[in-house]
Amino acid sequence: MGSGAVKSKRMPRAVREQQMLDAAVRIFGRRGYMAAAMDDIAELAGVSKPLVYLYLNSKEDLFTAVIRREAGALTEAVRAAVDPRLPADRQLWDGLLAFFTHTARHPDAWSVLHLQARTHGEPFATEVAARRAELVAVVTRLIALAARDAHRNPDLPEEEVAGLAEALVGAAESLAARANATDGVSARQSAATLMNFAWSGLGNLMTGRRWSPPPA
Fold first, then answer.
1. pLDDT of residue 35
2. Angstrom distance (rounded) from CA 114 to CA 169
3. Domain enclosing residue 165, as ranges
4. What's the rounded Cα separation, in Å, for the pair 73 and 102?
5. pTM, entire model
6. Which pLDDT score is estimated for 7?
């Protein structure tokens, strides 16, 4: 029976593709889109460069695939952490903690989403915006829940809820960038900072204590 060697099974395409995306996240996140080389991505993934092109077509398509996967993973981490059976403040806390924990554990992915993808124009900026909207939708639901359950105010206007969600996500993004660039700032610290700021503000807003701008 020849040498008796057993042929290894061919790796499934889906698994191989994930290996390529894993390598691409590291290279793009650390070197940026322009400096990233397909040769280096292929080498890190343990495949040939032609195979990368066969699976993912081009550097642009590869970068877009990375954005989609990593943004989806971040949103899913937040969504999975929220237990709808818990009080509204606990749901918001768990969601924020999951956000900061995920971005701290995946700094290369966060660099791609927060820095690289937004600075290289279309189609990457549009892709990030579309994926970010999914995260904002999760936060919008949490804020609407807080208005209804925690503060007994079901009448907070939809546009105000949407604006608060955008503001909260923007603040979370800024704090995550700071945490990833600053030694000693934990995910829990970042979540607590934003939770204290947001929950106090939401409490005042939803109980009718609003700040009014001076007359024009």
1. 94
2. 12
3. 60-206
4. 9
5. 0.83
6. 40
Cα atoms in the 13 Å half-sphere on the side-chain side of 87: 6
Asked if the structure places residue 79 within a domain, the reply is yes
CA distance to 8, 61, 140, 143, per residue, from 42 (Å): 21, 15, 40, 43
CATH code: domain of residue 150: 1.10.357.10
Cβ contacts of residue 47 below 8 Å, gap of 6+?
A: 16, 19, 20
Tally the domains of the chain. Answer: 1
In a domain, 41, yes or no: no
DSSP letter string, 156-191? --HHHHHHHHHHHHHHHHHHHHHHHHSTT--HHHHH
CA 208/CA 109 separation, integer angstroms: 40
The pLDDT of residue 179 is 92
Which residues 6+ apart lie within 8 Å of 168 measured at CB? 139, 143, 194, 198
Mean pLDDT of 73-95: 92
CB 56 within 8 A of CB 17: yes
Res 173: pLDDT: 95
